[in-house]
Amino acid sequence: MSNIYESAEATLGLCNSSCLTKVELRVACGGISDRDALSKPDPCVVLKMQSHGQWFEVDRTEVIRSSISPVFSKVFLVDYYFEEVQRLRYELHDISSAHNGLRDTDFLGAMECTLGQVCGCALRSVRSGQVTVGQFRIVSQRKLTKALLKQGNSTSKCFITVTSEELSGNDDYVELSFSARKLDDKDFFSKSDPFLEIFRINDDGSGSLVHRTETVMNDLSPVWRSFKVSLNTLCSGDHDRQLKCTVYDWDSNGKHDFIGEFHTTFKEIRTDLDGRQMQWDCINPKYQMKKKNYRNSGVVVLNHCKMYSFLDYIMGGCQIQFTVAIDFTASNGDPRNSCSLHYIHPYQPNEYLKALVAMIPSAVASIRTAACIQGVVEAYQSCLPKIQLYGPTNIAPIIQKVASSASEEMHTKEAMEYFILLILTDGVITDMADTREAIVHASHLPMSVIIVGVGNADFSDMQMLDGDDGILRSPKGEPVLRDIVQFVPFKDFKHASPAALAKSVLAEVPNQVVDYYNAKAIHPKCLSDYNESSRAFSP
């Protein structure tokens, strides 16, 4: 057994990793015509990605009311594969004020491009030992502006600008909450309707919109809802990067009145003031120049700044429960046949063993489980000669089994256990409807599902379960609460290092853990021992 295990490690450890990175895409539009003399459009952009010749929705922006030049705060996060042509389609819709769906809306135009065109990939040569390997990098920030095409491919007056940026690798999230006091009143017959925008100042002096709060109507001392944002998005991982915060009075005609602004940094936001609230004067530069005794146009207050990382939860006692499920159905072929994915060879590892050896060491390193690598391999090899491969291929039961344990954990309302299910399968599923239902249910639980496709079968069903091509729904139409499924075909990584597979599959797990507990407002236990990562103010 050890010879096969070592052979699998050697086979998978000799090659270079696949070229993969994560990219943020920001969207802005211009040149949109008014609906009529009395109303402006309510634009929304839908991002689609092409897969197997069809377009699937990836995500969509928020709807901005009454705007002909919207700058959306929604950031699209996509994986960039250097060796693939990834086709994107941006659709601009005018959404009715009555609903935010895409039915009965006005289609304003679309733009198609490849992710490579947006990112502006640049090649460079890097030496690794005695070997020169090809790597790539994304141009730090690149903009692509193109006219939108209407139905029939006629050019419209609308245009779209897409800005791309490679993530720096800091996946930590921060939760922020702001309020204001005594803002200037910009309305004659009522009070101002304020909202706050936060911009990150880029190296070239331009600003990238990070977040736009909701509008609080008729209130000069608003309290805006708290929000979560990654440090990549907020400040590119640079705590000293300048942030520009602007307060406006919302107007229904889209011509919002400027109230004031201030500048800060994330380093300043996290400053410990011995329990006192951080606050900034909201300054209107024109008033400051014209009014002799001008002090400010109000005060913006930081109510709280909470920053919990995956490590905080692990150090706080959260256990990762790692379950491995292997497909022993007849579609894999008789293990005694050399064509079988489960073929038993005395010296050469089969496809499943290669996938196991590639995945589990990466899982141990990435999620800090105490799983015994060799024990899993031995269990697989021990049971293989004793079982009869049969059908059908149902994976819903194993998802439901792990979900049952995760459901018990959910009721503790503490960050005690998070469950990860690794499924290795040849891709031929016979209970797709039940599987979709099980995943939608599991998306409410402290649980993630990783599916590795083994062999050369058609994995289109598996790709549908992965939310990257659109929003997964149950047969009844209920959408997943959060994206918990990650699928990857192992054949794409057979000639890559285990680290490449881990980067593709396991990189999302820490964020999924943090996102789940943040959504449930569950903080890490024993946080007082690790308070350098968190600070909260009481309003």
Automatic annotation (TrEMBL):
One of its GO terms (biological process) is cellular response to calcium ion. SUPFAM superfamilies: C2 domain (Calcium/lipid-binding domain, CaLB), vWA-like. Residues 1-128, 154-281 form the C2 domain. GO terms for cellular component: plasma membrane. PROSITE patterns: C2. GO terms for molecular function: calcium-dependent phospholipid binding; metal ion binding. Keywords: Calcium, Metal-binding, Repeat. PANTHER family: COPINE, COPINE-4. Belongs to the copine family. This is C2 domain-containing protein. It comes from Esox lucius (Northern pike).
